[in-house]
Amino acid sequence: MKAVAIFPATREVKLIDVPEPRITRPTDVRVRILEIGICGTDKELCQFKYGTPPAGADHLVIGHESLGEVVEIGAAVTRVAVGDLVVPMVRRPCEHADCVACSAGRQDFCYTNDYTERGIKERDGFMTEWVVDDERYMNVVPRALRDVGVLVEPLTIAEKALAQVRQIQQRLPWACPTTPGRRSDETDQCHRAVVLGAGPVGLLGAMALRADGFETFVYSRGGADSPRGQVVRAIGATFIEAETTTVAELPGRVGAIDVVYEATGASPFAFEVLAGLGTNGIFVFTGVPGRRGPVQVDTDLLMRNLVLQNQVVLGSVNASRADFEAAIRDLALFQERWPQALAALITGRFPIEAFAGQLLAQPADAIKNVFALS
Ligand SMILES: [Zn+2]
Ligand SMILES: [Zn+2]
Q1: 371 and 127 Cβ atoms separated by less than 8 Å
Q2: pTM above 0.90, yes or no
Q3: How far is the CA of 38 from the centre of ligand 2 (A)?
Q4: For the chain, which terminal residue's Cβ has fewer other Cβ atoms within 10 angstroms, N or C?
């Protein structure tokens, strides 16, 4: 079967032929991959910034955002059935018995860093035709989400972040005065969130924040009338152009910022925005910047704000099963509320043979391009 793999030692990215995986354990599930999302992580893997092949192998099959269909199940499988659409999780637990996170099924909080990740770290990924994995890593997606299910995995980043925001804000009176709790209606937006960046992670994060009742602002370059800007408007959020509004002007424009959801990976910019976070606010980092050397930051100002305004800075990576389930629920909600904006996130479908143009170049105006196999 076909697979896109990186060869770190020789710095090559190739479409290769690999043996089809077979079910070997009673809890295994065999999945036919339908779509694979292409993201910044894949592009960085193709630039050999990270990415570790499985032990003993010279290559790593990449791809971690996927949607597949179950075609065969082992004798002991109960969670999924043949014909189900599924999105497999990415991270697998470390093998240290004393890692309480992995032992509890929360490898997204692995203490040892010896976890593995399909398509990223020591395990082959999903940019291929068939995948076999344990049923415990499969998340069933309703048929109605066939066309957008490949967005589940990138949406889990926002779901995990939001779950933590809700948990942390229980430290204070956080409920909306009129309708406490989640899913407030369009007119009751008692908390304000700023999303940094209008890439797929930022736009999916903005949708999740809107669905959670936040008055939401997306701060990005690129123009309010661009396709990204149109998505922002369609979901009832506000696009703020970085070209015309400075970071210092942002709180004046938005009001007190309760949550910043960072989705750019640009660290000096993010720390500038942190200085404008509101009282009791949370700043969530999701980007992973390259290391470009030190820059100057006003640490006195940031530390004073953090203490005197009860602020929280949170980093978040990967996702639990509950976050996948939340992403699947929210995707159904987005589809109901904003079908066109949701569909607009997928800007192109390509055969896997087009891997070079999609992975090694930056296709203009793409939000989320995918490889379609069916
Ligand atoms: Zn990704
Ligand atoms: Zn662990």
Answers
A1: yes
A2: yes
A3: 27
A4: C
